[in-house]
Design brief:
CATH class of the largest domain: Alpha Beta
Number of helices: 13
Helix content: 25-40%
Distance between the termini: 39 Å
Low-confidence stretches: none
Bound molecules: 4-amino-1,4-dioxobutan-2-aminium adenosine-5'-monophosphate, magnesium ion
CATH topology of the largest domain: BirA Bifunctional Protein, domain 2
Shape: elongated
Largest sheet: 8 strands, mixed
Strand content: 25-35%
Length: 431
Amino acid sequence: MATYARIQDVAQHTGEEVTIRGWLYNKTDKGKLQFLLVRDGTGSMQCVVFKRDVTPEAFEAATTVTQESSIYVTGTVREEKRAPGGYELSVTDFSVLQIAQDFPISPKEHGVDFLMNHRHLWLRSSRQWAIMRVRATIIRAIRSWLDDNGFLLVDTPILTPAACEGTSTLFETDYFGESAYLTQSGQLYNEANIMAFGKVYCFGPTFRAEKSKTRRHLTEFWMVEPEMAFADLDECMRVEEELVAHIMRTVLSERAEELEMLERDTTLLEKIVAPFPRISYDEALEIARAAGESIEWGEDFGAPHETAIAKAFDKPVFVHHYPTQCKAFYMEEDPERPETSLSVDLLAPEGFGEIIGGGQRTASLELLERKLVEHKLPREAFEWYLDLRRYGSVPHSGFGLGIERTVSWVCGLSHIRQTIPFPRTLGRIYP
Ligand code: 4AD
Ligand code: MG
């Protein structure tokens, strides 16, 4: 009986005969020697087929096998310093499950549209493989940090009766004759949940009908949203920086190999330790203007402003106290300066933009009722949310961290479309 091994575990099988089940990634034909680069999902490994070591049928199969054919390769694991990964398989048997047709993605350059149309196949390539593994580690780091720090996972609905982040980016769907919307954020439900559980988080897909084509926007993206009863804006920032620092530590220690494949400059990531600088919107405005950006007080920052502000720091920077007018209806007003809100965004360095949005929420019933009117939101849909201010309202805060923005930053990617297996953007829902 063959011993099946996964490539990530071959070191434990040095000197033994194992079978790798995978796909042919690349091949070099040296006559009596065939060098097969085989990948199995956990890694890739050089497998050397020497004509005299295998049956004529096996050698013939190894010579003619095509890129991405599914294969079984049996051989002895040997330490080999020169081979990628440090191990090599001296092949004793080789068989093919299916001969792949001409694989559309070859090592040569392809255009982005071509690659996006073949996303289901593109995911097999080494860069995409590395990105998805970093993504999985980021998600695991987030969840384990929250789980270990007193946050309870409480799931929030995907189908919702109302907007959380403005009515202009809602995806509407028919709900048995009524209108329903795909969730933009689990926040409002989190606010109900903290009154039952204290500190919670939700983690799931969120949807925005973003009509702009940018490097930072998806129409379907994943967000983790912690929410805390009795927490103020300062506490909110403290939790954010602890969480982000933990993500960075975890990725640097567990995904060094992947970051190297992505040619990421990890010295920049090593600087991401708490605490992070904190500046007000007013101070950020000065920085943006000094960098030559024109912007009026009261306007929200766009990508060029965020880049200019972030450039002044080598860590993520908190920008707090945004003008009330450019933030969502639920933001608490600063009692000393009601034209500003107890809001905070976290801007990543190197121009990767906003990765977290959050702040302190309105605790008073009267203020919230006024905000709903000012934002022209339908009161009926928010009655339950107003209840939270009727029955034991408390100061509370929370935030949302965008997974894909974080993956872009950690991996150093120029475009958000490579951060999720099957991106949804304006004009793309295939594959
Ligand atoms: O700043 P946003 O809109 O905040 C909220 O949704 C709050 N309700 C969250 C909360 O306080 N619980 O979004 C939060 C983060 C952004 O900082 C960004 O990282 C990401 O979600 N994000 C997007 N990522 C990709 N594509 C989009 N269209 C995004 N919109 C927001
Ligand atoms: Mg935001």
